[in-house]
Amino acid sequence: xxxxxxxFIVKWNLKPFSKTSVKSSAKTIFKTKDAKEVHNRALNVIxxxxxxxxxxxxxxxxxFPSEVVEILKRQEFFKSIESSTNxxxxxxxxxxxxxxxxxxxxxxxxxxxTFRKLKELGCSVKFIITDSDVLELERYDIxxxxxxxxxxxxxxxxxxxxxxxxxxxxxxxxHVRTLSGWKNNxxxxxxxxxxxxxxxxxxxxxxxxxxxxRSDVDKLSKESVEDALDIIKDDxxxxxxxxxxxxxxxxxxxxxxxxxxxxxxxxxxxxxxxxLPENLFNKTMPVSIDEKEVDKVLREQDLSQFAxxxxxxxxxxxxxxxxxxxxxxxxxxLVLFDFKSNIHNWMKNKQFPVIAEELSMEVSHNEFxxxxxxxxxxxxxxxxxxxxxxxxxGGKTTLLEHIIQLVSYSYIGLPxxxxxxxxxxxxxxxxxKSKGSMNKGAFETLLxxxxxxxxxxxxxxxADEIEAVTEPGVAGKMIAASASFFINxxxxxxxxxxxxxxxxxxxxxxxxxxxxxxxxxxENNELIVDHNPVIGKLASSxxxxxxxxxxxxxxxxxxxFLYNYLKEF
Length: 569
Prior knowledge:
The chain is an alpha/beta fold. 45% of the residues lie in helices and 12% in strands.
């Protein structure tokens, strides 16, 4: 499965430092907007711990399975993930290339197809047509020649010319520049613990980092020549003081500019003491710099150094050419590592579900809550429908969303907190609590939606207070009738409602009344709730709890009458 995940990353061009939108064509089992929203919330619980934005897209790889064997295969994959430290991933930065060659480089060719290909590669390239085109190349430090049969003899005379055998060898410096953007990241990755494959890839790329180093060889410069001239003059002055020159010799120097042998020897000796080539200086009085010769030597020096630097890169052409592919592989592996390491951390203290015929959750913890109470709940062939009752804010909606959450994680192949047995549903419908007012249009819309539900034991229906869209007198009958219809067609159902008492009077076969029981109200009239549903028990509503509290805290006869009446009803 790891191979398939890598292929998914490549297919969608997922990278550590980008934000890619994956448009999955996979069909969803969540058939209502409300169900999809809860499913996305469940995924976000996992996504928030990923270091890279694109890593979240890997959850789209796990399409809703059609067979149990696929879930089992996924579970085995997640079980195989090893523990690893991943906190360093947040220290990685988006690559910013900084290296450029010290030399100007151009690739020349006579072939149209070669020219076009070189352009596509982003190379600085010139098309050679005439001799004048060749003359223009003298301003470049490195001239790479490819497919130039006609002008080859002329080009070979240029000292900066390098012959290439293929476009792969052209302007290799572009790959070195790309590598430079990863220098800090590679140094960081080299210092941490990584899986073997990832560590080997980092080592390969890191071995090429020395190509970024500038030459530390001492170079001749105009400044160093000027400094040497000052030393030469001082040395000559000191030695000339002790030199006796006749008047005739002096006149000859002044009239003809011819230096006496003694003085010429002093000048030569002083120049040699600097260690610099003699041809850089004019042996005159006073001694001066030969600017043309200096420029020539400096140019030859640069060309030699540039050629050596370029040759160093060219000798490693095979490794350099592979830099883009290896960096792409590194990005793939980093995204995969982010996914696996964070998933491993998320799976701690969780159990893998069992795919079964019944829905059964024991001491299950809701990931949407910070300090969730453990919940136990079940549906099976004996009771395929739960009429879930309880006071407002007691946890009915939370339980419905909890079930969708468990479906989301289970079908991906992930473990959950608590013991879970769950069917392989094909379609899931969730109708959230209406936030609008009761009206004819809302009721008709609800009925239309219910009529479109696919029937059978692979369908799960969750509905939250759907009575809100119709009249109280008929709401209980409608819920009971709907429950009866879907039960008889094999569906699994949970209806959260305040109409438990009314429904209990017409409760269909295979349905059950469950209650999320409130223990009472605190001093602020806030519910004291045991969020774990009590199977087979009708829970009290909020008004009933308020009446109960008032009857116990007041001596008013009215409150006691109300309380006793409601108890008997």
